[in-house]
Specification:
The protein is mainly beta and 112 residues long. It has one domain. Helix content is 9%, strand content 29%. The protein contains 1 helix and 8 strands; from the N terminus they run βββββαβββ. A 6-stranded antiparallel β-sheet has the order 1-2-3-4-5-6, covered by helices on one side. A hairpin with a 5-residue loop joins strand 3 and strand 4.
């Protein structure tokens, strides 16, 4: 089943000219799921990270972090994720040490 989420469901961080930028913490997109907030930030080597925490503890760190091949891939995962379980398509989970080469759950292994 293909999920479709409009971009209006996600607060994209843009400048006055509508160009993508970051907020003061480096996030380019934020989305709330009840008492959970998820945000995407660019990280080194052109990758992106999807960070998840409770709204009460935001922005003081994150409870779960997932790495993606690009910030755009992380934003797509943010758009498709329903806030339950884990988002899909990540290649590294920072909280558990799990790796998924090419985002493939069948190839998951722990790398500590």
């Amino acid at each position: 089943m293909q999920q479709h989420v409009t971009e209006s469901a996600v607060r994209m961080i843009v400048d006055v000219h509508g160009r993508p930028t970051t907020d003061e913490l480096g996030f380019v997109a934020l989305r709330d799921y009840g008492d959970i907030r998820a945000g995407v930030c660019p990280i080194g080597h052109g990758n992106g990270r999807l960070c998840i925490n409770t709204i009460a503890d935001w922005p003081y760190g994150w409870e779960r972090g997932f790495c993606y091949e690009s910030p755009r891939a992380a934003i797509v995962a943010l758009l498709l994720w329903d806030g339950v379980g884990e988002p899909t398509g990540w290649f590294r989970c920072l909280t558990t040490g799990r790796r998924r080469p090419d985002g493939d759950p069948a190839r998951e292994h722990i790398w500590w």
